[in-house]
Amino acid sequence: MFRDPWASALAGERGRELLRRKEERDRREDVLLPLRTRWFDDAVATELSGQTGQLVELGSGLDTRPYRLQLPAGTRAFELDQSSVLRHKEAVMATTPAPHRSAGGVRHPRLLVEGAGSGGATMGLIAAKLWPSMTINACR
């Protein structure tokens, strides 16, 4: 359905325990999680297919979509979330090998800027003014 080489490391023991409890409470496996992820992956890929653009994730959390998907060459991805969340995400992802990517799209993106206003994404700038505790990270 999709491959996320960082999911287990980002979720950690706490994330696995939360999922286990949810599934135990619901008395079933959470089959919607992978379906929802794949649906958004397909929606982003369709929207950006054949054109250079921007992907702005408001409240990006531990999502790795800009790193996992083969986005068109020249696409810029911006993540907006609390600094502590993005620092944790960057640290975990730095310890997990990135998958090999073919030419084009976002190749082994790095978090380039941190701080409201430095990312250049209009939507992100507006959101940063509404939620000053959030941070903009730009991925190449």
Write up this protein:
With 140 residues, the chain is of the alpha+beta class. It is built from five helices and three strands. The chain has helices spanning 7-26, 32-48, 65-68, 83-94, 122-130; strands at 54-58, 76-82, 134-139. Strands 1-2-3 form a three-stranded mixed sheet. It is globular, with a radius of gyration of 16 Å. The protein starts with 6 loop residues before the first helix and ends with a strand. Mean pLDDT is 74; it is low at 100-131.
Short description:
With 140 residues, the protein is α+β, with helices and mostly antiparallel strands. The chain has helices spanning 7-26, 32-48, 65-68, 83-94, 122-130, and strands at 54-58, 76-82, 134-139. Mean pLDDT is 74; it is low at 100-131.
Largest sheet: 3 strands, mixed
Percent in helix: 40-55%
Q: Could you tell me the radius of gyration in angstroms?
A: 16 Å
For the largest beta sheet, what order do the strands appear in spatially?
A: 1-2-3
Q: pLDDT under 50 segments (min length 5)?
A: 100-131
Quaternary structure state of the chains depicted: single chain
Distance between the termini: 25 Å
Mean pLDDT: 74
Defining key terms:
single chain, 140 residues, alpha+beta, three-stranded mixed β-sheet, globular
Detail the topology: elements first, then pairings:
Blueprint: H1 7-26, H2 32-48, E1 54-58, H3 65-68, E2 76-82, H4 83-94, H5 122-130, E3 134-139
Parallel strand pairs: 1-2
Antiparallel strand pairs: 2-3
